[in-house]
Amino acid sequence: MARALDTLLRLRKLEADQARRALGEAAARETAARHAADQARAARTLEQAAAAGDASDLVARAFADWLPASARMIEAADADCEREELAATAARTALAGRKAAFEAVESVVAERDVAARRRLARRAQLVLDELGQRLG
């Protein structure tokens, strides 16, 4: 039983470590998606400012032609951002579950170790008591 608990503890630790890495990767993807959405919005803002500063029909027409594509890029970036945010939330939830499983096994192992130390202390006390009776 002791080896099985130790093996289970190592397995739960490995699972928690993997979940922690997965969360790090998901958070990085979420950050990248958020950055891409910010970039798309910044590009639109720059184009709007450039178009507003030039009164020519050609620039106005080019901006009008570009605007729907910009809206689609922003919409796609927002969708990516939302998808990655959900993935990061799922990874956080998975990590919490893995940590809880590890901590539960860790607690059982600690209780087992405390019980073993108590048994050992009782045995030592019995030996001392017996020795005291023989000598006393």
Structure description:
The relative contact order is 0.14. The model has no long low-confidence stretch (mean pLDDT 94). α1 packs antiparallel against α2. The protein has two helices and no strands. It starts with a helix and ends with a helix. The chain has a single domain, classed as Helix Hairpins, CATH 1.10.287. With 136 residues, the chain is mostly helical.
Index terms:
Helix Hairpins, 136 residues, 96% helix, mainly alpha
- The total count of helices amounts to 2
| Overall 3D shape | rod-shaped
Q: Under CATH, the topology is which?
A: Helix Hairpins
Q: Give the total of beta strands.
A: 0
Q: Tell me about the largest β-sheet.
A: none
Class derived from helix and strand content? mainly alpha
How far do the termini sit from each other? 41 Å
Order of helices and strands: HH
Low-confidence stretches: none
The CATH class is identified as Mainly Alpha
- As a percent range, the share of strand residues is under 5%
Second CATH tier, the architecture: Orthogonal Bundle
Radius of gyration, CA atoms, in whole angstroms: 32 Å
Percent in helix: over 70%
Total count of domains: 1
Indicate the mean pLDDT.
Answer: 94
